[in-house]
Each structure stands twice: as structure tokens, then as C-alpha cells.
């Protein structure tokens, strides 16, 4: 992956990773793609596929779009390169409204925006090399430059050895690498990924995500990514938006949204990532206390460090850890704990209040014993 520099002019300034500076003015700072009051209703459909979308995607970030099937994710993504025409509102790329673009400007725009797909969309009768070279040929790029470019890209995606084979001889992950190389031929500034890892096994997914992260960091590309796999969002996205029935229901930094999801849909989508209650605990949980001695079971989500001794003291009584673990999202530790509290002097709703002083999200799951 040493050839990334060959793909960009060496003098190009490095794009800063989204971080503290961008967080200062999140609404306006460095918007690369901006949706303003965006709506889309397909012909013959009573319900809009997208409605009132106001959203900024920042330059250089990996931005995730999640939501249930039919929520409008692909429709939203495809307005960025005008594969879909909005019915209302505007899409700005680098502050420029793309709605009035004529054919020529649209072709130029689509070269600035690469796209990869779930099913790779490779040409089966062309070799790996020819698949990557084709868009350059179509654009009238001279042969020497095409060769330099294809070689550098195949090197970047780790497929230099496979340049002469046909797609049928490649694994799914290798096909997607060709798709990525092809998407990068015009040095795009934005890469759109619609379910790009959905057809891959977990190990291959991990290697493709590593490649996307590498491209994001080395080339400073803005990546917009749709996936049904929440672990993909957790592992590589900086920020995420949740769509439901064509509207934004939640958005923010991944660690915040995953740490304390506010919307019901987000909670449902994220459920597979959360440790299931053990069968024994599930069986013994009651909605109300069976006796005065019953223990309250609390679920806590903590972003960052948790001072357990302080929490335990505040809850009072006998606190036991039933289940728990810590995962890392970006630079943030995210802890999930299930505790039982027995014999505390505090009423359950007071326990909840007290636990909230220490944790970012607290829920009473029920009672045991
Ligand atoms: N070309 C089309 N013509 C008519 N309706 C469409 C078209 N494309 C999408 N829709 C409708 O728009 C809504 C949003 O579809 P979209 O494909 O954007 O959802 P999605 O979130 O990408 O779903 P999935 O996760 O299943 O890919 C759906 O109700 C869908 O049926
Ligand atoms: Mg879709």
C-alpha cells in the first residue's frame, strides 16, 4: 500500500482528520456534502422516500448511514452523485448546488465521486487490469498515464499479482478490491459505499474495512457508507445518521450514538451488538418485585471510565455484577454493566437517579429474587 502517494499530487495538503477543530462548529464547519430540506418521492409512490433531510457530511470523515430496509438510505446516498434527482431541497457539494448541472458538469461531478456496490458490478469478460482501466479509457486518458494509474491502484488495493485474471477467478473480497480500485481511478474526493461488505464473510469484511480506512486516511477521502452491519459502523465510522421512513431520527459521533442511542429504531438496530442477558437471568427477571428482599437489576452504559466504588457507595446495599464488558469505539471506551442492587435504602427510581450520576445511560431491567 505504498503507492498511495502516487495517486495524489505530493504538494496536496493533507486533509485533517475530523477531530476537535471540526467539533467546534459542527453545523457549518467543513461541510463536504450538505443536504438542505431534501425530499424525494418516487413516481407512483404515495409516501416520500426521503423527507426534510438536513445533514452535513464533513470533509475527510467516514460517515455511516443506517436504518431499516426501505428507510431511504440508498435513495439518500444516490442523490450525492445525482443518480437520484431530489423532489425537494438541495444537495451541495463543496457549497455548490448540483441541481442545475448539465451533462458535462454531471460527468465531471461523477468523476469526483467514486462508488462501490454490494455485488461489485465488474465486467466478467475483462481482466482485473481492464476493469480498472476502462473508466480511464472512457475519459480519454493517454496510455502511459493509464498504465501508471492502474498499476498504482492495483498496488494500493493489494492486487498487483492478479492484474491478468478475470473476475470469476477472484474471491469476493478480491472482487471488491477491484471495485475499490476502479472507484478511485479519477482521484475522487468522495467514495460512496452501498452495502459494500454485505456479500463478504467477517474476515474479508475486516480486510476491506481496513482498506477503506487506509484510503480515507492516506488520500483524505470523504467516505459515505451504508451498511446493515452495526459492527462495520462501530469499527470505522466517525459519525452516523439513523434514517427511519425517509427522515433523520438520530445522528452524531458513533461512540455517542452507540453509547446511548436515543431513538427506538437505533436501539433496535444496535440490539445485536449488545450482549444478550444470560438465559438464567432472563428467566429469573420479574417486572415487579416478588418480595421486599428482591434485588433491582440495572443496566448501565458508561462512556469512558467508571469509578465503581463511587457508584456502589451511591447505590447503597449489596451491589453485584451480573454481566458486563468494555469495548472500544474509536478512542472511547464503552462499558456495559448489569448490576443487581439488594437491600438498598433507596427506592428503585432513586437508584435510577443515583446511577445516572455515574453512567451515561441507565435502565431498570426488572427484579430478581
Ligand atoms: N426506483 C424506485 N421507484 C419507486 N420506489 C422506490 C425506488 N427506489 C426506492 N423506492 C422506495 O423508496 C423507499 C426507500 O428505498 P431505499 O432503496 O432508499 O431504501 P434503503 O434504506 O436503501 O433499503 P435497503 O436497506 O433495503 O436497501 C422504499 O420504500 C422503496 O420501496
Ligand atoms: Mg439500499
Automatic annotation (TrEMBL):
Superkingdom of this protein's organism: Bacteria
CDD domains cross-referenced by the UniProt entry: ABC_MetN_methionine_transporter
Keyword annotations: Amino-acid transport, ATP-binding, Cell inner membrane, Cell membrane, Hydrolase, Membrane, Nucleotide-binding, Translocase, Transport
Pfam families listed in its UniProt record: ABC_tran, NIL
Membrane topology type: Peripheral membrane protein
Alphabetized InterPro entries for the sequence: AAA+_ATPase, ABC_transporter-like_ATP-bd, ABC_transporter-like_CS, ACT-like_dom_sf, MetN_ABC, MetN_ABC_transporter-like, NIL_domain, P-loop_NTPase
One annotated GO molecular function: ATP binding
Gene Ontology annotations of biological process type: amino acid transport
Primary localization class, coarse: membrane
Transmembrane segments: none
Region feature Disordered, mapped onto this chain: 1-25
Localization annotation: Cell inner membrane
GO cellular component: plasma membrane
Compositionally biased spans, kind Low complexity: 9-18
The ABC transporter domain, residue ranges: 33-270
Keyword Isomerase: no
Functional description taken from the UniProt entry: Part of the ABC transporter FtsEX involved in cellular division. Important for assembly or stability of the septal ring.
Family: Belongs to the ABC transporter superfamily.
Record PANTHER family: AMINO ACID IMPORT ATP-BINDING PROTEIN, METHIONINE IMPORT ATP-BINDING PROTEIN METN
Protein name in the entry: Cell division ATP-binding protein FtsE
Species of the source: Pseudomonas reidholzensis
Classification lineage: Bacteria, Pseudomonadati, Pseudomonadota, Gammaproteobacteria, Pseudomonadales
Amino acid at each position: 500500500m505504498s503507492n498511495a502517494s502516487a495517486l495524489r499530487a505530493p504538494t496536496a495538503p493533507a486533509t485533517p482528520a475530523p477531530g476537535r477543530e471540526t467539533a467546534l462548529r459542527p453545523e457549518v464547519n467543513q461541510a463536504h456534502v450538505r443536504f438542505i430540506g431534501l425530499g424525494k418521492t418516487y413516481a407512483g409512490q404515495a409516501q416520500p422516500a426521503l423527507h426534510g433531510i438536513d445533514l452535513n457530511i464533513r470533509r475527510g470523515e467516514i460517515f455511516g448511514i443506517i436504518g431499516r430496509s426501505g428507510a431511504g438510505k440508498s435513495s439518500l446516498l444516490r442523490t450525492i452523485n445525482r443518480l437520484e434527482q431530489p423532489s425537494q431541497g438541495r444537495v451541495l457539494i463543496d457549497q455548490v448546488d448540483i441541481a442545475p448541472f448539465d451533462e458535462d458538469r454531471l460527468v465531471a461531478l461523477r468523476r469526483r465521486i467514486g462508488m462501490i456496490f454490494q455485488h461489485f458490478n465488474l465486467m466478467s469478460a475483462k481482466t482485473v487490469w481492464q476493469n480498472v482501466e476502462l473508466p480511464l479509457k472512457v475519459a480519454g486518458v493517454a496510455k502511459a498515464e493509464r498504465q501508471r494509474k492502474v498499476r498504482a491502484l492495483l498496488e494500493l488495493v493489494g492486487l498487483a499479482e492478479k492484474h491478468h485474471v478475470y473476475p470469476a477467478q477472484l474471491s469476493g473480497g478480491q472482487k471488491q478490491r477491484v471495485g475499490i480500485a476502479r472507484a478511485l481511478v479519477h482521484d475522487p474526493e468522495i467514495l460512496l459505499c452501498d452495502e459494500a461488505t454485505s456479500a463478504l464473510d467477517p474476515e474479508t469484511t475486516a480486510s476491506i474495512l481496513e482498506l477503506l480506512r487506509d484510503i480515507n486516511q492516506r488520500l483524505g477521502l470523504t467516505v459515505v457508507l451504508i451498511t446493515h452491519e452495526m459492527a462495520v459502523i462501530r469499527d470505522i465510522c466517525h459519525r452516523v445518521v439513523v434514517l427511519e421512513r425517509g427522515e433523520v431520527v438520530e445522528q452524531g459521533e458513533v461512540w455517542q450514538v452507540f453509547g446511548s442511542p436515543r431513538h427506538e429504531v437505533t436501539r433496535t438496530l444496535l440490539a445485536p451488538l449488545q450482549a444478550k442477558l444470560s438465559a438464567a437471568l432472563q428467566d429469573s427477571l420479574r417486572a415487579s418485585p416478588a418480595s421486599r428482599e428482591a434485588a433491582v437489576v440495572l443496566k448501565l452504559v458508561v462512556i469512558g471510565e467508571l469509578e465503581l466504588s463511587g457508584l456502589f457507595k451511591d447505590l447503597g446495599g449489596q451491589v453485584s455484577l451480573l454481566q458486563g464488558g468494555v469495548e472500544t469505539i474509536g478512542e472511547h471506551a464503552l462499558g456495559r454493566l448489569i448490576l443487581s442492587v439488594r437491600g438498598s435504602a433507596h427506592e428503585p427510581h432513586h437508584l435510577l437517579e443515583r446511577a445516572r450520576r455515574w453512567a451515561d445511560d441507565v435502565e431498570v431491567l426488572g427484579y430478581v429474587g
